[in-house]
Amino acid sequence: MKKAQSQIATAKPSEKLNTEMTRSNLEVVFLGTGTSIGVPVIACDCPVCCSQDMKDKRFRSSILVRKGETTLVIDCGPDFRFQMLKQKVENIDAVVFTHEHRDHIAGLDDVRAFNYIWNKRINIYGCKRVMDSIRNEFPYIFNETRFFGAPQLDINVIDNKPFEVKDMAIEPIEVMHNKLCIFGYRIDNFTYITDASAISETEKAKIKGTKTLVINALRNSKHVSHFSLKQALGVIDEIQPQTAYLTHISHFLGIHEEVQASLPANVHLAYDNLKIEVGGEKA
Ligand SMILES: [Zn+2]
Ligand SMILES: [Zn+2]
Ligand SMILES: [Zn+2]
After folding, report:
1. Are 71 and 91 in contact (CB under 8 A)?
2. What average pLDDT does range 133-156 have in this prediction?
3. What is the rounded distance in angstroms from the CA atom of residue 23 to the CA atom of residue 179?
4. pLDDT tens digit string along 205-239?
């Protein structure tokens, strides 16, 4: 696919990240690792929100996943535009949604930059409830009388069965977010779960064997719709991945450096712009 002619002079593709990695490896970039309100929180003067450490500055949770020629983002929150600029993302093939909460969908309108630059439509994936919600939240995108310049998106309704985005095989993992059934995703040896408060044994079985597990840990005290740090560590202990990363973090969890020092050796607090590589096909 060629970029739109008029844009070629202003945007230069750099395939550096792709060429640096083995084709079968996944590259994952944490675009955001914060809870719904972000960190720092507007008008908060707590030590975390006042920290000068860049690892204490968290956009709303989202990741970029690359494998071979395929690039997608999981979720597209209110910080999407700045996340794309920060990472100099040249192109995406798809947006895959975990669920319909604002902090995971609010940036959808900005996907249209990729429509303009590459002169192509973008596929979006999510369960029927999520797609209905997106239609309601962004009616102008899907109306028959859509206006010129609106995002050009193709809806792909998925259920709890494996699906593919180009050559990337993705397996949904159904988790509970309080009473809402939402999706995490397993891609090869990598599993991404955010906004979970419970995972059934059947779904945990689908995660087993994953080398790298990302899971949400909101804060130290319990919360009705998110795992606490202790609960997240409990899931990690059950799944036994080689490496685990915690995400969807609130300012209540504490200073990054201090929390990191308290964690088991194979568990890391994720932070914005962290890049990891996950090797090998699913066993
Ligand atoms: Zn969230
Ligand atoms: Zn704060
Ligand atoms: Zn949520």
Report:
1. yes
2. 92
3. 39
4. 999 999 999 999 999 999 999 999 999 999 999 99
Q: What does the mean pLDDT of the chain come to?
A: 92
Domain spans of the chain? 23-278
Distance of CA 145 from the midpoint of ligand 1 (Å): 32
Q: What is the pLDDT of residue 202?
A: 98
The ligand placed nearest to the CA atom of residue 99 is 3
Kindly report the CATH number that applies to the domain delimited by 23-278.
3.60.15.10
Give me ligand 1 centre to Cα 144, in Å. 31
Ligand nearest to the CA of 100: 3
- Gap from CA of 99 to ligand 3 centroid (Å): 7
Per-residue confidence band for 73, with pLDDT thresholds at 50, 70 and 90:
very high
Output the pLDDT for position 146. 76
Neighbours of 64 (CB within 10 A): 20
pLDDT of residue 148: 83
Could you write out the DSSP letters of every residue in 130-186?
Answer: HHHHHHHH-HHHHSTTPPTTS--EEEEE--SS-EEETTEEEEEEEEEETTEEEEEEE
**100, 77 in Cβ contact below 8 A?**
no
Cα–Cα distance, 85 to 103 (Å, whole number): 18
